[in-house]
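A reminder from the course coordinator: this example appears on the midterm review sheet, so study it carefully.

Given structure:
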């Protein structure tokens, strides 16, 4: 090793950003927009646990956006039959999903008394209304046009979801790859929810059993890794809800736990799970 070790600079003469936000004193603060970022956590109650709830929700919202980029990139690569690029994007997404699943730890210690003391300030607010989460559901193929009703008063969110609903899902593009390899796959519904289909299961069975299609096994397994992590997130959400509010109805108007259980019990990419019954 040659050369000397220097500590980082403590003065920054060259970074004269004219719209420097108040409090953004360093190039780092300006780049990361620290002042704006730290102004976004605004608890509405005196309960300290509300801060953790807001931070967790905001962190997850950002991770939803990051994940959407990876899943959209995987979809684009599949459309181009670029399996390596699709697998790389799914793998990046799986790391994001692991952080999303781990983020539930931030709320693991919240007691019912703590949740009850700020629940009234939520009013009707519920994560169910997250349009970023809904775009992820649409990417997976869990589609429902009726849910757009929530965004009637919010044109930007409505338009993004309307467009998302008319673009084939990640799973539809994966099935299109199988079809281009000669497998009989029915056209996936575009605006409706993908439901288990025997012909799709038969196509995956061929992938897993026909040596000529062995390269597509990697795709099936990568999709399964993604699907399993979606379910893990739902299961951790279910546990967090069970710990903090038991079987009470949700702020968003659902029956709470029973509704969340139904959602967690639905397999993502269902044929990739059922095909295992006879592999
Ligand atoms: C302990 C804290 C939490 C409780 C008690 C809770 C409760 C609930 C309940 C009861 C529902 C069903 C809809 C309703 O009636 O409101 C729901 C849905 C949902 N929540 Fe939470 N939640 C919590 C934390 C979070 C966090 C931090 C996020 C992150 C953004 C989140 C995102 C969602 C999403 C995306 C849905 C829709 C789920 C789906 O469609 O499968 N929740 N939540």
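Designed residues:
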């Amino acid at each position: 090793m040659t050369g000397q070790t220097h500590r980082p600079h403590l003065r920054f003469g060259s970074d004269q950003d004219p719209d420097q936000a108040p409090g953004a004193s360093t190039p780092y603060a300006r780049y990361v927009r620290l002042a704006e970022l730290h102004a976004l956590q605004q608890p509405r109650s005196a309960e300290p646990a509300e801060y953790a709830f807001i931070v967790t929700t905001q962190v997850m919202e950002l991770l939803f956006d990051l994940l959407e980029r990876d899943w959209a990139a995987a979809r684009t690569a599949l459309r181009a039959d670029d399996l390596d690029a699709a697998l790389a994007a799914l793998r990046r997404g799986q790391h994001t999903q692991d952080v999303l699943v781990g983020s539930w730890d931030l709320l693991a210690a919240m007691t019912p008394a703590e949740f009850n003391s700020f629940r009234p300030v939520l009013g009707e607010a519920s994560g169910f209304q997250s349009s970023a989460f809904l775009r992820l559901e649409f990417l997976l193929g869990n589609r429902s046009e009726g849910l757009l009703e929530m965004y009637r008063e919010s044109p930007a969110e409505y338009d993004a979801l309307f467009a998302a609903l008319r673009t084939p899902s990640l799973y539809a593009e994966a099935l299109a790859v199988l079809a281009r390899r000669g497998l009989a796959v029915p056209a996936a519904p575009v605006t409706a929810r993908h439901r288990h289909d025997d012909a799709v299961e038969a196509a995956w069975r061929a992938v897993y059993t026909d040596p000529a299609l062995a390269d597509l096994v990697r795709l099936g397994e990568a999709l399964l890794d993604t699907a399993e992590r979606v379910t893990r997130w739902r299961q951790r959400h279910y546990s967090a809800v069970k710990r903090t509010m038991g079987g009470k109805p949700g702020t968003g108007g659902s029956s709470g736990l029973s509704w969340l259980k139904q959602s967690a019990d639905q397999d993502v990419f269902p044929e990739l799970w059922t095909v295992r019954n006879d592999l």
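The first helix runs from residue 27 to 32. The CA atoms of residues 131 and 157 lie 7 Å apart.
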